[in-house]
Design a protein that fits this description.
This protein has 198 residues and is mainly α. It has ten helices and two strands; from the N terminus they run αβαααααβαααα.
Length: 198
């Protein structure tokens, strides 16, 4: 997952943004008004390294309010990127999630909580998982507009790398162990982390 997200970040970082003749055809397909397309054709053709710089330049020349309804179409039309690399990275992320954190998290959570608290703990964990998933959906557009596409994917890639390190260091192997054995292992680990009371 981390490799896939970091690959997406690199692909967007290595991309460029410039309006070309092909871009204007894309804008026409996206129902951008003809007068705006003509103004864009007459503007100076500069290559930008990020979508933020690209849109900032266009907004300075043609007005932010005028471009706001067509922002996504403009970014899409101006983007020059290795699309196949991004596609394979996204597919790799989805596949990696489907065989790791996606299903394994629920199995792990059902194994690490003591029997007497398992039902309540799973409910709390499920609630927070859903809340965090929803918050990612809501803040993603804000992240894109403030950090750019490369910065957004870089942030998620670094979080995935941190999650991998956390799993390697702190999550015990559960294969072939009973729930009682796991509880004993986790209690011993927990006692090492908590300093003794004086």
């Amino acid at each position: 997952m981390a490799v896939s997200l970091l690959t997406c970040s690199w692909a967007f970082h290595a991309s460029s943004y410039q309006l070309t003749e092909e871009s204007f055809a894309v804008l026409q397909d996206n129902k951008v008004p003809g007068e705006l397309i003509n103004d864009l054709k007459n503007s100076e053709k500069i290559t930008f390294s990020t979508d933020k710089e690209f849109m900032a330049d266009l907004e300075k020349k043609l007005g932010a309010e005028r471009l706001k309804p067509h922002r996504d179409a403009l970014v899409k039309a101006g983007l020059n990127i290795r699309a196949s690399l991004v596609l394979f990275a996204i597919i790799g992320f989805v596949a990696s999630f489907a065989i790791s954190l996606g299903p394994v998290m629920w199995v792990l959570l059902s194994e690490i909580f003591p029997n007497q608290y398992r039902g309540m703990a799973m409910s709390v964990a499920g609630f927070w998982n859903s809340a965090i998933s929803a918050s990612v959906t809501f803040i993603f557009p804000w992240e894109l507009s403030h950090f750019g596409t490369a910065g957004t994917f870089l942030g998620y890639g670094l979080m995935a790398a941190a999650a991998l390190i956390f799993v390697l260091l702190f999550i015990p192997e559960t294969k072939g162990k009973t729930l009682e054995e796991l509880e004993g292992i986790l209690m011993r680990k927990g006692n090492k982390l908590v300093p003794p009371a004086h």
